[in-house]
Amino acid sequence: MAQEVCGLKAQLREKEEEIAALKNKLAQLEKSRAASVELHHRVMPLTPLTGKAALSNEDIMRYSRQLLLPELGVQGQLNLSKTSVLIVGCGGLGCPLAQYLAAAGVGRLGLLDYDEVELSNLHRQVLHGEENQGQAKALSAASAVQRLNSTVECIPYHLQLSPENALQLIQQYDIVADCSDNVPTRYLVNDACVLSGKPLVSASALRMEGQLTVYNYHGGPCYRCLYPVPPPPETVTNCSDGGVLGVVPGIMGCFQALEVLKIASGQGSSCGQQLVMFDAQDARFRLIRLRPKQASCAVCGENPSVTRLVDYEAFCGSAATDKCRKLNLLSKEQRITVQDYKSIMDSAEPHLLLDVRPLVEVDICHLPSSLNIPLSSLEERKREHLQLLRERVSQLKHQMAGDCQPPVYVICKQGNDSQKAVQILEKMSGSEVDRVTVKDICGGLTAWARGIDRTFPQY
Ligand SMILES: Nc1ncnc2c1ncn2[C@@H]1O[C@H](COP(=O)(O)OP(=O)(O)OP(=O)(O)O)[C@@H](O)[C@H]1O
Ligand SMILES: [Zn+2]
Q1: Which of 35, 46, 86, 200 is most buried by a 10 A CB count?
Q2: Which SMART domains does the entry link to (predicted)?
Q3: What is the atom index within ligand 1 of the atom nearest the CA of 185?
């Protein structure tokens, strides 16, 4: 019996040593993986990418299923290994794009993003996991991509693409993919690609729709040829305002990967002069023939006025990030803070709280006893909604002393739409709504959740 115990103890010791050795090996592997994806905070000159002269047996096995395609073949695979691709934005489009390019064996991937991973990114930015929250998106994406294919050289840039760094960066890559989410960055990437002579595989996705085009490719148009003037900033919707079904950027990012792979392998893209429009609701793709390259284009035309990168935020009238789009439409007197509103609420002073978000957002969360009239209904002067507003105001009037009118406080998600609503209500005539004092609650429900009630949901 004692002998048996001794034997078991020895076995246990052996296993423990084995586990310790494995743990050690794992730690070393983690360390070397982390080292192989060192984060770049500025643009550095890269060594020229040589690619492979021939495929190894391991390459043949790894890429065997695509090597079998006559459209790709060995030469196509070797071409991929010689190609570098810069991905601008490691979000909903950039993640699937980077994943498929790495899996397919592209030689070098530049992964650029200034932002960090947030919980609300995870439904669509599929290279990032829960444990990556707070980490630079570029690093998180690069680590995931390296796990998938360690033979691909990955260069994560934790910085914002700007007129100061764009040319130096883009000149070092063969193909550029625009996976960003704002108009100034789109013009910046376009101009830098035209000035450096690089094809630009560009896509976008919002709500249930996506679009894709390849610009500046084989004599085709550039982004400016088609959109010489930026849209007014207030007409641009982003994912955090309009929402997006995660799989839609997933499909469009994969589509970008397809076009990049076709260009890189030598097959060429057929999207140089057409716009692909994807409608997820109807499960339909539509192809629209685009107008050709314009002789009058400011950057790629015959007499270009844009010969170096300019100030794109000034040109577009909006910031090159979608984080802080704060409108400032009202005077100080027309606005109150969330703290002011909390005091009004606590004092039980009669008032009307008007929530101007779309119904779908009110269903997610709302403050008690608010009246919901979406901004669009106010803009369209929807009769039944104005009637509702009149009724609520007159009910409240009974609680007021003398002939006083109850004040109306307007709230939305971030305090932009509520300002527009205040302007609309102030312009309304007495026959539409009674004369009332209308004020905006600065920063909306986001400010409420951050400054007053930490348990209130943020989205
Ligand atoms: N000029 C830029 N330089 C670097 N990265 C950029 C630039 N402009 C946009 N991006 C990045 O492009 C990505 C766009 O992806 P996406 O719209 O899916 O993400 P998001 O901005 O995190 O989303 P949400 O709007 O839900 O917060 C973002 O990660 C953003 O940080
Ligand atoms: Zn052009």
Answers
A1: 86
A2: RHOD
A3: 1
Residue 75: phi, psi to the nearest 5? -65, -40
Q: How far apart are CA 338 and CA 131, in angstroms?
A: 33
Q: Is the pTM of this model over 0.95?
A: no
Look up the ipTM and state it: 0.98
Amino acid identity, position 191? D
**Catalytic choice (90, 154, 179, 239):** 239
Last residue within a domain, chosen from 316, 348, 363: 316
133, 184, 243 from 318: Cα distances, Å: 27, 7, 20
Q: Do 247 and 340 have their domain in common?
A: no
Are 336 and 409 spatial neighbours (Cβ–Cβ below 8 Å)?
yes
Residue 161 CB–ligand 1 contact under 6 Å: yes
Would you write out the chain's pLDDT as a tens digit for each of its 459 residues? Answer: 677 887 888 888 888 888 988 887 776 666 555 546 789 999 999 999 999 999 999 999 999 999 999 999 999 999 999 999 999 999 999 999 999 999 999 999 999 999 999 999 999 999 999 999 999 999 999 999 999 999 999 999 999 999 999 999 999 999 999 999 999 999 999 999 999 999 999 999 999 999 999 999 999 999 999 999 999 887 787 777 889 999 999 999 999 999 999 999 999 999 999 999 999 999 999 999 999 999 999 999 999 999 999 999 999 988 887 665 688 899 999 999 999 999 999 999 999 999 999 999 999 999 999 999 999 999 998 989 999 999 999 899 888 877 788 999 999 999 999 999 999 999 887 777 777 899 999 999 999 999 999 999 999
Q: Is the CB of 361 under 6 A from ligand 1?
A: no
Residue 430 and residue 399 share a domain? yes
Is 304 found in the same domain as 354?
Answer: no
Testing ligand 1's pocket by substitution, the residue of 95, 113, 236 carrying the most ligand atoms inside 8 A of its CB is 113
